Amino acid sequence: MGKMLGGEEEKDPDAQKKEEERQEALRQQEEERKAKHARMEAEREKVRQAIRDKYGLKKKEEKEAEEKAAMEQACEGSLTRPKKAIPAGCGADDDEDEESILDTVLKFLPGPLQDMFKK
Predict the structure, then answer these.
(1) What whole-number distance in Å separates Cα of residue 118 and Cα of residue 103?
(2) Residues annotated as region Disordered (predicted)?
(3) pLDDT value of position 110
(4) What pLDDT band is residue 8 in, cutting at 50, 70 and 90?
(5) Which DSSP category does 19 fall into?
(6) What count of other Cβ atoms lies within 10 Å of the Cβ of residue 112?
(7) Is it the case that residue 18 has pLDDT exceeding 80?
(8) Taking a C-beta distance cutoff of 8 angstroms, is the pair 99, 92 a contact?
(9) Nearest CA among 57, 92, 59, 85 for reference residue 71
(10) In this predicted model, what pLDDT tens digit does every residue of 28-82 receive, in sequence order?
(11) C-alpha–C-alpha distance, residues 72 and 53, integer Å
(12) For residue 7, which of 2, 3, 13, 55 is within the disulfide window of CB 3.0 to 4.6 Å?
């Protein structure tokens, strides 16, 4: 009532203590949640490892490390950076492929035009 009339707000003497208890409870809940999450993740990792062992699979990190080591071994004696593989059809084709493409295009042209390009 005092607050509505513009007076001082009534203060609860235990408000500070209650707020501290509430904050502590929140911290404790957060710690419990994190611990539960860590336990669940450890269980999942055990299951993942069992599957890897059963099927002879490797962890992603191990696979990447092996690929990196293989690249380093291949480039060990080279003075230049490793060449990247060029996918098929991206400019590193043989002349035979270009001729076959030209022949394919010529098939769709009318007879007189085919004769002009063949000469």
Answers:
(1) 10
(2) 1-47, 73-97
(3) 78
(4) low
(5) H
(6) 7
(7) yes
(8) no
(9) 85
(10) 999 999 999 999 999 999 999 999 999 988 888 888 888 888 777 766 666 666 5
(11) 28
(12) 2
- CA 118 to chain centroid, in Å, comes to 52
Terminal C-alpha separation, the chain: 106
Q: Give Cβ neighbours of residue 13 (< 8 Å, ≥ 6 apart).
A: none
> Which residue carries 């599957």 as its tokens?
51
Q: What are phi and psi of 51, to 5 degrees?
A: -65, -45
Angstrom distance (rounded) from CA 3 to CA 9: 5
Q: How far apart are CA 73 and CA 75, in angstroms?
A: 5
Angle between helices 95-107 and 111-118 (to 10 degrees): 150
One-letter identity of residue 38: A
Amino acid identity, position 90: C
- Strand, helix or coil for residue 42: helix
**3-class SS at 13?**
coil
